[in-house]
Amino acid sequence: MQILIVEDDKALSNALKQILEDKGYFCDAVYDGRTAVEYIGLKRYDVIVLDIMLPVLNGFEVLSKVRGAGIGTPILMLTARSAVSDKVDALTAGADDYLTKPFDIEEFSARVQALTRRRGELIMNVLNYGDLSLNLKTSELMCREKSVHLSYKEFKVAEMLFANPDMIVTKEILINNVWGADSEATDNNVEAYISFLRRKIKFLDSRVRIKNIQKIGYKPEVSDD
Amino acid sequence: MQILIVEDDKALSNALKQILEDKGYFCDAVYDGRTAVEYIGLKRYDVIVLDIMLPVLNGFEVLSKVRGAGIGTPILMLTARSAVSDKVDALTAGADDYLTKPFDIEEFSARVQALTRRRGELIMNVLNYGDLSLNLKTSELMCREKSVHLSYKEFKVAEMLFANPDMIVTKEILINNVWGADSEATDNNVEAYISFLRRKIKFLDSRVRIKNIQKIGYKPEVSDD
DNA sequence: ACATATTTTAAGGTTTTTTTCAGAATGATA
DNA sequence: TATCATTCTGAAAAAAACCTTAAAATATGT
């Protein structure tokens, strides 16, 4: 398990490194945003621990570059004060979890460990796709500043699509997973919900699109414009 | 099962080796393109995992040497970033599957496993013929940079032709497989679809042609010019 | 029970796919 | 070469799949 620690306070950085290495993780530590982006481009990490206050590029800038490059590595953000707006910013910017300084060591390892669970059974708070992030706890769909609430079924459909971005999700699969295998739901139900989701994604000014491949199914993609 | 890992990032290489050996595969790891070609010439592998960015010879060059030597070992390409053109290149150059870095471990093993299924029941994501490759999931037909979407029936016809490039596929077989044995479809339906396909293949500037043998059927071939 | 939010249903519109058909082109045969 | 059968192709019609929206029906919370 490879972890990147991005934290300019060297004392803290060393401490975190120590803690994680004791748990058997392999860690790289960097001390500014630009170097972090370089490292992330070069090597595959399982988790990135990212401070917000950083020289050169700050945490949010790093985050948006990373997500912008289509890299979905789980990110644990370290926010200085407990300012609510920072937490919210971190999550809307595509982080998977955040922790407010000062924090408890046990708390810290627990969060990292949660993020290293292999995907699928990963306990994530947030599911990222493109510039969108779906908060799995609150059903909020966010893109940069904006955010909308998804209804239960909208949420389930979005989760299906964004959790398996490589595969094309058929209407049948959606019906089975969202409405239930023995339901009466028709293709039109799915179509209606895809339409609802598209409207909300458009409202968020996201670059994500839900593409239809006739007779096969739906698949999310990131558009160019 | 013998697997060759061609990846110059030693950390990643070791990780992949570990993963595959845990699953019971025997792995060799090499760190540059030339050595890879040597190994492949010497020993028979069941799957080759091939990075694109490599010292001495890059992934594409290795791929074309291997295929040029008439070696058909399934190849899983690792492309950095999700640059679409790289994916397309990998597939058109004769790879059997690709994976975008960074990737999920489960995803990786699943792909390798898919490629080690004994041929015939091989689960392929892509069907190659000449300079064309047909994405079996998305119904995209690609040739170098370009790519077009095939409709359901176009796709089925193309699949029939390219999956059995040695045999001449009769109209009857096509009708049975694409339209269904009890359908009303006439020979002209087949002719129309062959025409659609030819137009799209021409649009892609491919060297593949669909040849007609009077009163018998159709067969794909690679033209000289 | 009321207001609010969610889900279902249905109808009309749009787009894509498929079929049809007629004329042109090609190939086989005498 | 003339004739006939087969195949090719483009345009248009028909069908199917999909999208969107509004309104009706349900569900949920206060």
Characterise the protein shown here.
In chain A, the strands form 3 sheets. A 5-stranded parallel sheet of chain A has the order 2-1-3-4-5, sandwiched between helices. A 4-stranded antiparallel sheet of chain A has the order 6-7-8-9, covered by helices on one side. In chain A, strands 10-11 form a two-stranded antiparallel ribbon. Chain A has helices spanning 10-22, 33-42, 59-68, 84-92, 105-116, 152-163, 171-179, 187-203; strands spanning 2-6, 26-30, 47-51, 75-79, 97-100, 126-129, 132-135, 140-143, 146-149, 208-213, 217-222. Chain A is built from 8 helices and 11 strands. Chain A folds into 2 domains: 2-124, Response regulator (Rossmann fold), CATH 3.40.50; 130-222, Winged helix-like DNA-binding domain superfamily/Winged helix DNA-binding domain (Arc Repressor Mutant, subunit A), CATH 1.10.10. In chain A, helix 2 runs parallel beside helix 3. The model of chain A is unreliable at 118-123 (pLDDT under 50). Chain A is an alpha/beta fold. The radius of gyration of chain A is 19 Å and the shape is elongated. Chain A binds a DNA duplex (30 and 30 nucleotides) through helix 6 and helix 8.
